[in-house]
Amino acid sequence: MKRCLWLAAKGSGNTAPNPLVGSVLVAEGRIVGSGYHRAYGGPHAEVHAIESVRDKSILRKCTLYVNLEPCAHHGKTPPCADLIIRSEIPRVVVGQTDPNPLTAGKGIERMRAAGIEVITGVLEEECRHLNRRFNTFHSLGRPYVVLKWARSADGFMDTDREESKKTGIHWISHPAVKKLVHKRRTLEGAIMVGAVTLANDDPSLTARSYFGRQPQRFVLSHRGILPAKAKIFHDGVPVEVVSHRGGPASPLLNAGDNLTWTSAPAETGLIEAALASMHAQGINSVLVEGGRETLNGFIELNLWDEAMVITAPHTLGKGLPAPSLPLSATHSRRYATDLINTYYNR
Q: pLDDT of 291-346, one tens digit each?
């Protein structure tokens, strides 16, 4: 099962909204085949594993290991449970059941009904952690939410903009951390900021420094007041603005062909409306990069699952206080000069 998890992780950033899945075939104590789900729309892990076995007669002696329950429905590909049955594999070991209601136990039931011995719950916690985005999307009906911010050693995430009159991004973290953050962007389905951050920093919200999939961009704006000259409105890449206003407050923003406006009902918060829009589009994770009001909004609503907090060694003395979390970091590591703490909201 550990081998399955290692294989599954190789598909990171390429399979969403599908899960990360690895599969291993073992016969008489030897691994005879393996595979993983490489990209959305392509063959599943079990298919690759079975196809990797040259002598198909060996399959009748095999145990198939897979970190997620084999699917039982027709999607982009046929059901893996049916393939396993046709291959006459006598034993299957599953890490976790599939939370997707299209499968949700049906794959296990179908294999057992065909006489296959099925064992479940092997390294289940590790399996669930690997597919935490997929699990959250189907179990909670919203994307997996990752908060990210950088702070100085004395707890500030920005200078005092009113006092300094500074425009543009104020870099706090080490330059090497930028590439790490961009790598993280390729792993999430969407990226989000608030209108104040858009006005102050004019960010591109892309993974420019790392090869991979670009996240879909979202901006929260209560009144639809946004800087018409912001880069993201003129680069041709789609942007969705979630606002209590039905459209832009500035007529200049009407010219942006890449803009989509989502109107949030007055009784609904922007955060909830944005997450609902993402879920409807099949986006299973979002990286929230600020600003402070937006980040605190997620924390106060308890609508977050993971946080990446980067602490630089230098101080600012004063400025905009960084958010704080009511729990201890799950793990920490040094990257260049900075300390990166990861928090999980259990």
A: 899 999 999 999 999 999 999 999 999 999 999 998 999 999 999 999 999 999 98
Q: 188 an active-site residue?
A: no
Centre a 10 Å sphere on the Cβ of residue 318 and count the other Cβ atoms it contains. 11
Give the span between the Cα atoms of 207 and 211, in whole angstroms.
7
CA distance 70 to 85: 11
Q: What is the pTM of this model?
A: 0.92
Helix (H) or strand (E) holding 259: strand 259-263
Which residues are bridge partners to 11 per DSSP? none
Cα–Cα distance measured from residue 221 to residue 219, given in angstroms and rounded to the nearest whole number: 6
Closest to 146 in 3D by CA, of 204, 203, 190: 190
Counting Cα atoms < 13 Å in the Cβ hemisphere of 65 gives: 23
- The tokens for 52 are 């990797």
The total number of residues written for the chain in this structure: 346
**Catalytic hit among 46, 69, 188, 306:** 46
